[in-house]
TrEMBL record:
Entry-linked Gene3D superfamilies: NAD(P)-binding Rossmann-like Domain, UDP-galactose 4-epimerase, domain 1
Catalytic activity: dTDP-alpha-D-glucose = dTDP-4-dehydro-6-deoxy-alpha-D-glucose + H2O
Record InterPro entries: dTDP_Gluc_deHydtase (IPR005888), NAD(P)-bd_dom (IPR016040), NAD(P)-bd_dom_sf (IPR036291)
PANTHER family recorded: DTDP-D-GLUCOSE 4,6-DEHYDRATASE-RELATED (PTHR43000)
Protein name (Swiss-Prot/TrEMBL): dTDP-glucose 4,6-dehydratase
GO molecular function, one term: dTDP-glucose 4,6-dehydratase activity
UniProt keyword annotations, A-Z: Lyase, NAD
NCBIfam families listed in its UniProt record: dTDP_gluc_dehyt
Organism of derivation: Neobacillus cucumis
Gene (name only): rfbB
Residue ranges of every copy of the NAD(P)-binding domain listed in the record: 4-305
Enzyme Commission numbers on file: 4.2.1.46
Length: 336
């Protein structure tokens, strides 16, 4: 199989590229990524010389280049991770989210259609379903009801994927996963931000009352689920992915404080995120029963390993925090 992975230099994409390069030595894996602030080839240093791996720098919105690469490498399957992924950035700068997450998806779909790609997999998110009350779960039948510019742009991409299936008969799947955590997670997101700030003795900013709930899944379990969808997903189907690990943000931050043995006084309650979704929780019954997926990690083991990874890989995140990201961080929270 010749696989075109877009956004493979980001957090989940790089974990997926590594997983596939190791799992399928006979496949050809082409990683196509624009290397925005979130894309980092350091994430793939250990596998960059593998014979079954190639990197190409490019924008998913560049139809000519995408088409050229897809033809050159005789691509069979496209897996699209490329996206603007941070909700806070989508609130201050929505336009690039529409360009990449919606229009970029449409460009990939067009190239897939014109080149008679055998399968197109869209990596989406549980956030397209909106926010839950205190009970209940998102199933694949839950209506799409996004609340942030980020989730609206992801939902728009998903609807375009569905349209290309219905209209042109393109073989597609959409996966909707809950919040991921694990190695190479960019330190603007809750868990890596709190872990790295705690290690550095910096403030730990919790939005609002900290009682918002997210459903956490280790990134490797997300990768194994996508592997199953690539190989066994039924045409046109949506698969929700999650491991029933609901935690409030307060619980997450207190756990990190406790595991790292730092002072609780670092915790600071700050202004809430605009339109902050209260609760996400995934019902993963479909992928578990129909494709036989099972997560390997419990949250308790996964989070301890992940904290250790950040302790062992300080150079990786310190390089990021000292660059462009630092300016964004200073604008968000003031200098500290
Ligand atoms: P990320 O921000 O870490 O990585 C995104 C990658 O896409 C980066 O390497 C970036 O350079 C690349 N990219 C951005 N714009 C591009 C463009 N125009 N052309 C080519 N490449 C471009 O994001 P992530 O957390 O790894 O998320 C990957 C995907 O998974 C996204 O589609 C996101 O919506 C989805 N998702 C993320 C989570 C999560 O918890 N992080 C959960 C569910 C779904
Ligand atoms: O400093 C912070 N303080 C805080 O309280 C940050 C960065 C976040 N939070 C809260 C907001 C959320 O309730 O923590 C929760 C998690 O926030 P993020 O890490 O920004 O993730 P979230 O908004 O839930 O979105 C993530 O999961 C779904 C990814 O970024 C998306 O790409 C994915 O689709």
């Amino acid at each position: 199989m010749n696989l075109f992975v877009t956004g493979g230099a980001g957090f989940i994409g790089s974990n997926f590229v590594r997983y596939m390069v190791k799992q399928y030595p006979n496949y050809k894996i082409v990683n196509y990524d624009l290397l925005t602030y979130a894309g980092n080839l350091e994430n793939l240093r250990d596998i960059e010389n593998s014979p079954n791996y190639t990197f190409v720098k490019g924008n998913i919105g560049n139809q000519e280049l995408v088409d050229f690469i897809v033809k050159e490498h005789k691509i069979d399957v496209i897996v699209n991770f490329a996206a603007e992924s941070h909700v806070d950035r989508s609130i201050s700068e929505p336009d690039v989210f529409v360009k990449t997450n919606m229009l970029g998806t449409q460009v990939l779909l067009d190239v897939a259609r014109e080149n008679k790609i055998t399968k197109y997999v869209q990596i989406s998110t549980d956030e397209v379903y909106g926010s839950l009350g205190e009970t209940g779960y998102f199933t694949e039948e839950t209506p799409i009801s996004p609340n942030s510019p980020y989730s609206a742009s992801k939902a728009a991409g998903d609807l375009m994927v569905k349209a290309y299936h219905e209209t042109y008969g393109l073989n597609v799947n959409i996966t909707r996963c809950s919040n991921n955590y694990g190695p190479y997670h960019f330190p603007e997101k809750l868990i890596p931000l709190m872990v790295t700030n705690a290690i550095e003795g910096k403030e730990l900013p919790i939005y609002g009352d900290g009682k918002n709930i997210r459903d956490w899944l280790h990134v490797e379990d997300h990768c194994s689920a996508i592997d199953l969808v690539v190989h066994k997903g039924e045409p046109g189907e949506v698969y929700n992915i999650g491991g029933h690990n609901e935690r409030t943000n307060n619980e997450i931050v207190h756990l990190i404080v406790e595991k790292l043995g730092v002072s609780k006084d670092l915790i600071k309650y700050v202004e809430d995120r605009l339109g902050h979704d209260r609760r996400y929780a995934i019902d993963p019954t479909k992928i578990m029963t129909q494709l036989g997926w099972k997560p390997k990690y419990t949250f308790d083991t996964g989070i301890v390993e992940t904290i250790q990874w950040y302790l062992d890989n300080k150079t990786w995140w310190k390089n990021i925090k000292s660059g462009d990201y630092k300016h964004y961080y200073e604008e968000q929270y003031g200098v500290n």
